[in-house]
């Protein structure tokens, strides 16, 4: 199935883009879950019209604004977005078929944490970001999962059923429930990877080392250049013009991923602009 607009990210920018795209009668699918940055914020005082409100309540109000509109939702992770000329193909975790869309809006937020040492060097050469996508490549081998979120716990349990051994580096800051066969490393801070042409060792700040055939880094967002090959960046952000068009025709971006300020009001406004301009772009095809 091909949608008019696929939106990657379900925070304020993504929801605003979805609402404004749907108002223009476009078929829309949103990938993502509630933004933890908002839902875990106790008090928001600078969002016009609401006075003081909790992030959780504000997020619920955002979602209520979409009620009644036939907008498809998916919590599955988009692994890669491929520009195919007049449409885009979205590779989805654990799915054989790609999702197609005539236009895409990136509203993923931004990952501000630094890469581990040699993470970029060994990307796709022992360092991976989607266990459900790539675990089968390590069947019968040893794998380390550096987990920062709930998804990483689920991925570790899934991966342990495929590979010979899983070691889980717990970065979630909470107790985790894992299959008995999984070794858990607590209280260690990973620094980076070592190897020749392929990552084969993870180094910790304490000096501890662990060898494996593959490594998975599972966190809430990934760098835009890994999501969209050949996208032009401005530092850590996606480069956009005033219409929130990126360097790839038909692809738009909104919210924190386009740059500072990292504010809800800015994200909502950019989501509106991206949604309306994506709809206008489709009308010109």
Automatic annotation (TrEMBL):
<dbReference type="InterPro" id="IPR036188">
    <property type="entry name" value="FAD/NAD-bd_sf"/>
</dbReference>
<keyword id="KW-0560">Oxidoreductase</keyword>
<dbReference type="InterPro" id="IPR050097">
    <property type="entry name" value="Ferredoxin-NADP_redctase_2"/>
</dbReference>
<feature type="domain" description="FAD/NAD(P)-binding">
    <location>
        <begin position="3"/>
        <end position="271"/>
    </location>
</feature>
<protein>
    <submittedName>
        <fullName>NAD(P)/FAD-dependent oxidoreductase</fullName>
    </submittedName>
</protein>
<dbReference type="InterPro" id="IPR023753">
    <property type="entry name" value="FAD/NAD-binding_dom"/>
</dbReference>
<keyword id="KW-0285">Flavoprotein</keyword>
<dbReference type="Pfam" id="PF07992">
    <property type="entry name" value="Pyr_redox_2"/>
</dbReference>
């Amino acid at each position: 199935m091909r949608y008019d607009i696929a939106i990657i990210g379900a925070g304020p920018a993504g929801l605003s883009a979805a609402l404004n795209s749907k108002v223009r009668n476009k078929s829309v699918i949103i990938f993502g879950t509630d933004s933890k940055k908002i839902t875990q914020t106790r008090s928001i005082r600078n969002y016009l019209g609401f006075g003081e409100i909790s992030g959780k309540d504000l997020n619920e109000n955002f979602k209520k604004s979409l009620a009644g509109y036939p907008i498809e939702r998916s919590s599955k992770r988009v692994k890669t977005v491929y520009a195919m000329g007049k449409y885009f193909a979205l590779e989805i975790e654990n799915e054989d078929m790609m999702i197609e869309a005539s236009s895409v809006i990136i509203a993923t937020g931004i990952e501000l944490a630094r890469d581990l040492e040699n993470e970029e060097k060994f990307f796709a050469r022992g360092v991976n970001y989607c266990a459900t996508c790539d675990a089968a490549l390590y069947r019968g081998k040893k794998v380390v999962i550096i987990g920062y979120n709930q998804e990483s716990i689920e991925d570790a349990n899934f991966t342990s059923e495929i590979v010979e051994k899983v070691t889980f580096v717990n970065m979630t800051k909470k107790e985790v429930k894992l299959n008995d066969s999984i070794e858990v490393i607590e209280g260690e801070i990973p620094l980076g990877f070592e190897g020749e042409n392929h990552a084969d060792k993870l180094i910790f700040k304490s000096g501890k080392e662990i060898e494996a055939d593959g490594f998975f880094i599972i966190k809430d967002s990934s760098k835009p250049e890994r999501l969209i090959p050949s996208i032009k960046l401005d530092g850590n952000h996606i480069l956009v013009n005033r219409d929130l068009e990126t360097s790839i025709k038909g692809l738009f971006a909104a919210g924190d991923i386009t740059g500072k300020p990292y504010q809800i009001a800015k994200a909502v406004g950019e989501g509106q602009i991206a949604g309306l301009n994506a709809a206008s772009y489709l009308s010109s095809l």
